[in-house]
Amino acid sequence: MKEIALGILAALFFAVTFVLNHSMELEGGSWLWSSSLRYFFMLPFLLIIVFSRKGWKPLTFEIKSQPTKWLLWSFVGFGLFYAPLTYAASFGPGWLVSGTWQFTIVAGVLLAPLFVTVIDGVNVRQRIPILSLIISFVILIGIFLIQIPQAQTLSFKTFILGILPVLIAAFAYPLGNRKMMEVCGGRLDTYQRVLGMTIASLPIWICLAIYALMTVGLPSGNQVFQSFIVGISSGVIATTLFFIATDRSREDQGKLAAVEATQSTEVLFAIMGEMLLLGIPLPTPIALIGIVVIILGMLLHSYHTMLVAKKSVLKEKEAELQS
C-alpha cells in the first residue's frame, strides 16, 4: 500500500508536465526546448543529491562497467519517453496527452515476458499477470470515457499526432525503467539510477537543443521558467518517487503493475490543473463517469495487491513451520 501511495503522489507531480507543456505550446514555445530543458534542469539537483549521499563513485563504476546498456535503456526510458510526450503536446491538449499516456498501464503488464527471474538458480521467464491486466483494462475504459467528449471536437490529424507519439512513450517508459532496474541489480539507489539515466541520455537532449537553436532560436524566459518547474516537479520529485515505488515492487509483477497503474490518476490531476490554470470547462457527465471508473480500477488494484501480500506472508509462515 505504501508503494501505491508513492505512485499516486508521483502522479500528482507528473501531471505538472502535461499542464505546463500544453501551456508552453499555447504560448508558442517549441517542444524541442520543452523536452531538453527539463533534463538540463534535473541534472544539477540530482548531482547535489547523489554527491551528498556519497553515491557518485558507485554510480560511475556501474556506468563504466556497462556503458552500452546504460546508453540504450536510458535512451528508451527517458529519450523515447519524454520527447514524444512533448511533441504530442504540440497537437493536443494536456487531457488528451495525459489520457493517452495511461496506456502505459496496460503496456507495463504486457512487457512481463521480456524479463527473467532467477528462482533456485534457474532462469524463469515472467508471465503476464492476467488479473492485473484485467484490472488495468478497467482503468483504461475510464480513460477512454474521459476522452470521448473532447475527442469529438478534434480534427483527425490532431487526434492522431496527439496519440501515436504518446503510445510510443507508453511502452518506452516502463521498458526502460525495468531494464535499468535489471542492469543495476539493486546495487544503486533510486537517486543514483535517475542521475545515471539522465547523464546517459544527455546526448539526446544536447542534439535536440542544438537543433532547436538552429531552427527556432532561443527559448523565451517564460518557457525556461516553466521548464524549470517541470524539471523539478516531474523530473526530480515525481521520477524519484515513482522509481522508489517500482524498485520496492520489482520482484512481483502484479504489485509492480498496481504501482504503474497509479499513473492513471495523472488524468485527474491534469484535468484539475488545466481547469485552474488554463480555464478549461468542467468535465462532461461521460467524463465524470470515466473518473469514477478510474478510481474503481485503482481500488481494485490496491485490494488485489493487499491480497497478494497477505498470501505471500502466509506462505512464508508455512515454510517456517515446515522447516
Characteristics of this structure?
mainly alpha; two-stranded antiparallel ribbon; globular; 323 residues; single chain
Q: What report would you give on this structure?
A:
Pfam families: EmrE. InterPro entries: EmrE. It comes from Lysinibacillus halotolerans. This is Multidrug resistance efflux transporter family protein. The chain crosses the membrane at residues 31-50, 70-89, 95-116, 128-148, 154-173, 194-218, 224-245, 286-309. Strands 1-2 form a two-stranded antiparallel sheet. Helix 1 (2-26) packs parallel to helix 13 (253-261), helix 1 runs parallel beside helix 14 and helix 2 crosses helix 4 (67-88). A hairpin with a 2-residue loop joins strand 1 and strand 2 (122-125). The mean pLDDT is 83. It has 15 helices and 2 strands. The longest helix is centred in the last third of the chain and has 38 residues, at 285-322. The chain is globular, with a radius of gyration of 20 Å. It has one domain (2-322). It starts with a helix and ends with a helix. The protein has 323 residues and is mainly alpha-helical.
